[in-house]
Amino acid sequence: MACPTSISLKRGFIQGVLRPIYRKTFRKQQEKFILQNYLDDLQIIHSIRGDDFLRENPVDHTPGVVHFYEKDGFSANFRWLRYIYLAKRILDLEILGSNSVWLDIGSYYGGLQGLIRKYNPDVNIILVDFHHQLCRSYIYLKSLYPNSKHIFPNQLEDLKNFLSAHNGCFCYVPASEFFLLKDLSVDLATNFFSFGEMKREFFADYFYSDVISNSRYMYLVNRFVSSPWYEPTYDSDLSVSDYFNENREIEYFDVFPMHHYHTIYRNLFGRPGFRNTSSSYFELISKPK
């Protein structure tokens, strides 16, 4: 997820000068929509009183960043604005502290985890993803927190006892070894976007597992319909109705506002044009009854 184009030598000559000139010359209409969408997302951050939080965490100060846009003292891109929103919401829940455990399914490169750790240094964070994504997360988080304890997949056998005796560690769990977490008690279980990309049987393995079902809080953001009939996006038949658990009560439910107004240039019905995504996303926070 990129950002509006601007000329800046901070990104180097090719990325910061040549690429923006090309985009501004040959993709004017697309750039207009991208900037409009970016400003909408920025306004959402303002609406949740996240201005100071974003200002404290400029994306161009994070490891490996290439694409960013600077405006009004903020540095961000679309993915970073999403992480800022999610991090602010998690921190506002005030449930992560010393010895607490946060389990995230589908952590990608660890951007959200790096933000939360900065403000909750004693939380134990468990990242579940494919092996190559866990490698991304380790490289990113190790560069941010080199002195933290990083637990690798071959060190997971005694994870329950380890977590009870330590604070502030990162645990990297391959999706294929998720079963090792079955006896854990977690304060927060999260999934952002990837449940809706799974087939039903894989979704059920996660969603109805004891470690997630019994979590103190569950925070989800996923598509209302994974594959609308007129544009089947994923090989999945999941819809919003699958995310309600009779053993949990809803604390919060609404449309996920970030990127909601994005208009993307893509093909549909054999015709290229500017369109929104085929299904918007919901935001759901629940706890046990």
Question: What does this protein look like?
Answer:
This protein is of the alpha/beta class and 289 residues long. The chain has a single domain, classed as Vaccinia Virus protein VP39 (Rossmann fold). Helices cover 34% and strands 21% of the residues. The chain contains 9 helices and 12 strands. The chain has helices spanning 13-26, 28-47, 51-56, 78-93, 111-119, 131-144, 159-165, 200-207, 210-213; strands at residues 69-71, 74-76, 101-105, 124-129, 150-151, 170-174, 188-192, 217-223, 248-255, 264-268, 271-275, 281-288. α4 runs parallel beside α5 (111-119). The radius of gyration is 20 Å and the shape is globular.
Q: What is the CATH fold-level name?
A: Rossmann fold
The CATH architecture category equals 3-Layer(aba) Sandwich
Strand segment count: 12
Q: Give the averaged pLDDT, no decimals.
A: 92
Distance, first to last CA: 37 Å
Order of SSEs, N→C?
A: HHHEEHEHEHEHEEHHEEEEE
Biggest β-sheet strands, sense, barrel: 8 strands, mixed
The proportion of residues forming helix, as a percent range, comes to 25-40%
Please tell me how large the radius of gyration is: 20 Å
Task: Catalogue the unreliable spans.
Answer: none
Structural class: alpha/beta
Give the overall shape.
globular
